[in-house]
Sequence to fold (501 residues):
Amino acid sequence: MAVGVAGTAAQADEWQDPNDVLQMLLEAQPDSKYLHQSEMNIMMMPDNPALWLLDDGERLFHEERGPNNASLESCDFGKGEGVLEGAYVELPRYFDDVGKVMDFEQRLVHCMKEIQGFTSDDSAVSQRHGSGSDIMRLTTYIAHQSSGYAWNPPLDHPEEQAMRDAGEKLFFRRGGAMDFNCAACHGDSGKQIRASVLPEMRNSQEWTKAVSWPAHRAGQDNVRSQNHRIRGCVWQMRHAGILPDTPVNTALISYWNDAARGEPAILPDLKR
Amino acid sequence: MFNKNTVAAGVAAFASVALAAGCAVADGNKADDVDITAMSAEELAEHLIFETNSWRDQEMQEGGTWRDRMTQDEIQKACSFDSTRNDLDGETAGRVVALAREQYEAPEGDIELGDWRRGAELADSGFGYRIGHNNDDHGTREQGGNCYNCHVMDSSVSVQGTIGPNLENYGAQRGDSQEIRQYVHQVISNPHQYFPCTQMPRFQGLLTEEQISHIMAYLLDPESPVNNR
Fold:
């Protein structure tokens, strides 16, 4: 399996347009059924509807909002207060202020609660899905600042390594009503569930596209997150219903992003 | 359900976590105080599943809670290795086959085929046992077999998956003897008897015997479109 084409990683420490990243991956793997499965989506990529969320997301990030009338400019996503460039691809990570590993959405919600004073009941944080939600607008704007950067979730802290390793166990853990694990769908190359060609987790260039959320899902006509993808996979696997901002969710994302390490992220992406 | 026994397995999992967690369990705030770096990856995975409130509190269609559904039975445990990097070893394969044979309940007497038309509908239906943000309600719609998700059975209808083998002309190539019917019933009910650690679900307990007979008819009846490709 072709993994890691020379030149890809070398360019991956600077911002790149998501369509340019996609084109680079398509050229690197001309035979990947997963990467090439939707000609229409590839054509649509320069006009990705997810890009429409960027302006709203930028406004929401800088606006003084919530009971505390504060902006998110003092939120630290791991690279310093208000530093967004390259931050999204270096998550999940351990945060000293909370003493645990957090994934992106969990960190965003943490900041909206701690800095802006929103509570779990406020729609600003309770509504997680859909292009019209504050969370997805903010997610798309913040993630976009990392487009083209290589996935590089830190593993220096022992808890980061522990969560990534537990995520690996979860990925292969057979369970639920139908005995599935994540590898049932993502362990082989070029396989289909119905019409969907599945990404192979060991092919890091397929996998970087697979984990590159937020993405506009054409079939759902909405921008979706990594959390939404996990929720859908767990639902289809007939495991129990998973909750956001929980350690199982974070551990899975730790493993996901680590499996795409070194490959540039497509942010936002467009998927079927 | 036959494969969701395992109070014992659950207790064992909790015991190992409690050991690893040491005194932290005592003060009641487990999730926050446990030293996750002191556990093995496997212990931590079990700890995250069972001790961190990561699941919705819902009743499962087969009865029981998320805890019952997420508790592994012996076959699930044995098959949780990294299949992308390791082959199934012979000892595990033998043990899984033996466990599957133990679980399997053979029908009494001769096996009759059901209605292949009903089997076609069941093969196409992905409904059933999904839980979470949108629950499948078995009171309003019967569970399906999900066969098309992974198998091509009749390529003239719908789009079908390729995770499992192509089953077109399955019965046309094998005939429809009692021996074949017994084998197909065994494979649908508990495929680990022949394919240890297969990705295919064990349908005995998920589908009724009547539903299985319809799907068997879809595969074996000479009139079925599966056998006229």
